Amino acid sequence: MKQIYLKRGKEESLRRFHPWIFSGAIHHADEGIVDGDTVRVIDSNGDYIATGHFQMGSIAVRVLTFNNVAIDNEFWFSRLKSALNMRTAIGLAGNPNNDTYRLVHGEGDLLPGLIIDIYGRTAVMQAHSVGMHLCRKEIAQQLIKVMDKQVDNIYYKSETTLPFMEPENGFLIGQSDENIGIENGLKFRVDWLRGQKTGFFVDQRDNRSLLETYSHGKDVLNMFCYTGGFSVYAMRGGANLVHSVDSSAKAIELTRSNIELNFPGDKRHDAFCEDAFKYLDEAGSNYDLIILDPPAFAKHRGALHNALKGYTRLNMKAFEKIQKGGILFTFSCSQVVTKDNFRNAVFTAAALAHRKVRILHQLHQPADHPINIYHPEGEYLKGLVLYVE
């Protein structure tokens, strides 16, 4: 195994078990190292400190382990088993009322660069690093062993996360056309072939449940609805009406399909293929529960300033439209936007709209999207539930 050598003092973050090594921390490396190689990392004293996947770029090494062990089938099995044990402990794995959950959440499960979501009998695997892409077949084999008859099929979906490699999406193990997952007793069609992420936003499960408790008798507007997750929960919660809005015709089609799957023939729901800002500009002030769950406004730090302006503008429009006594669920999934950044943007929007606002809940990602305590960057989902006078 080839080795990478750190500059003096650059091992301090690794002593605190941070799983990233930045390119600027590297003094030199053995010849012939290429993207995806598994490398040993040596500190300035010549001592072993970590093993990880190498990749050209700002994050040069994603650490797999701080123990000097082989990265083999036993390693993959152990890490996957640990991830499953945690999901079993929190009541997700093996629960027939909820067969849709995240099994592996990158750094949060000590497997940086790897995402695995479970949808019934199918696991959808996504690589965010070349190293994980190269190990996909070995990981898939160990995943089948770990899941022990809970999963029959493994679909690999990394075309959008590794576009420079042009990996081919497809089944690594098995084959299935069954694409319905169950979340808290509700059914959702999961488009792992063409959908965003792995096909469904699993990370809003707990927040959708909370929304359900506030929906009774409400006129609900779900912006950026995608597959209509919040809309379906609002319907079950007894909403008076639910309007779903997305700029994607495919998303509107999925939303309508999911509503029909759970509430066939129910006339309380309607969906609109429309730009969010345009819709809010033209909408009346007849909604008393609004959900704002936009895609990431900032993919990198260079976009942070414009992203915060976008969050302020979007939330201001919602504050202007929502009825007195209404409730706003508002989110940011941009990793580079901190909780304070987001809150300040929303507070600015409230002030500009001249509305009195109280915080009812501060929301975040669910337990199956764990945050490695040594990797605070893993906290990406921020949300607020606000009461608007």
Short descriptors:
alpha/beta, six-stranded mixed beta sheet, Archaeosine Trna-guanine Transglycosylase, Chain: A, domain 4, 20 strands
Strands in their spatial order, largest beta sheet:
16-15-14-17-18-20-19
**What is the strand content?**
25-35%
Distance between the termini: 62 Å
Proportion in helices: 25-40%
The description of the largest β-sheet is: 7 strands, mixed
Which of globular, elongated, flat, extended, rod-shaped describes the shape?
globular
Structural class: alpha/beta
Using the 3D structure, state the CATH architecture of the largest domain.
3-Layer(aba) Sandwich
**According to CATH, what is the class of the largest domain?**
Alpha Beta
Written description of the protein model:
By secondary structure, the protein is an alpha/beta fold. The protein is 28% helix and 27% strand. It has ten helices and 20 strands. The strands form four sheets. A seven-stranded mixed sheet has the order 16-15-14-17-18-20-19, sandwiched between helices. The chain has a six-stranded mixed sheet with strand order 2-6-5-4-1-3. Strand 4 (38-42) and strand 5 form a beta hairpin.
